[in-house]
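ugh ok fine here u go
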Amino acid sequence: MSACLPPGAVRRLCGFGRTTCADGYVLRPESVEAAQEVLSLAQRAGRNVVLRGAGRSYGDASLLPEAVVIDTCDLARILAWSPDTGRMVCEPGVTLEDICRRAMGEGWWLPVVSGTMKTTVGGALAMNIHGKNAFRAGPFGCHVSSIEVLLPTGRSTELRSDDPAFRAVVGSAGLLGLITKAEIQLKRVLSGRLRVTPISCRNWNDQFRAFEERADEEYCVSWIDGMARGPTAGRGLFHSARHEDAPHAPSLDWASQQLPARIAGVVPKSTVWRVLRLFNNDPGMRLLNSLKHLGGKRGSGVRTSNRWRSSRSYWTTFRIGNWRMGDEGSFSTKALSLPIPRRRCSNRR
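structure:
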């Protein structure tokens, strides 16, 4: 390859929150050797390099103006899979959906699941993502036993989970090298259904109490009305969940996890964002939040348990297609860390 970057590779990329965009030379290697060539080309051209998976980070994690962007979506092969042990070896462009589609029918599920099934394994490790079970299972990197990393020098190296360099690379936002392979330990499940308990919370005290009282569950998450003030500050709807213990083979079929594309069988979910966009203002948000809070009071309580598909529980925001289009150029996300004892990765020293 020459030091001349292909002008046809220039593309404008944005973060998932669509608040920040940048133009870059986007190249999609299909092998480790091709990725090495891209690194060499960038070095000869005097360009910085940024790594990008599915682009699901809200901010600018995979953006750098006029840089060479290594898009890993074509490095998307599952290299090895053992339904006996739940061990999977895959390339960085494999998505969480790809893993579920391959393993769920044989009784295996992801140990940590992000808010979207489109996250790539490379991105999940680069950001060391968490899920609704972070307080018990830790982040994604806790369930990876080894990785192969392509360093900026072009040299490839294997790192085990007890290696300090492993801990440096996982969670480094792709600044130390390109993860080209990962070995992941999946979680055994007997059913593709969850038992979900909703609890309506009137304020912050109710929120903290719900988390403390349900800390023995597998998953805990809460929607919080960020616009509530005074005695209602922190109001919202808490959910705890656990996988069903009784075997249920039909729910392990990935096809059974697909959510309907239409509301009430009529309105395409892919168009709902156009209506939501009308409420993208303070009065509109207050109204929607109030309605959601009132709706959450129905059927709420520790004695109430609902059966949900795994996909509905994990990927709630994606029940509405193109939902982020309803918040043009102003989307942000915030997360709270509660003072629960931190879970240490069992596969690390």
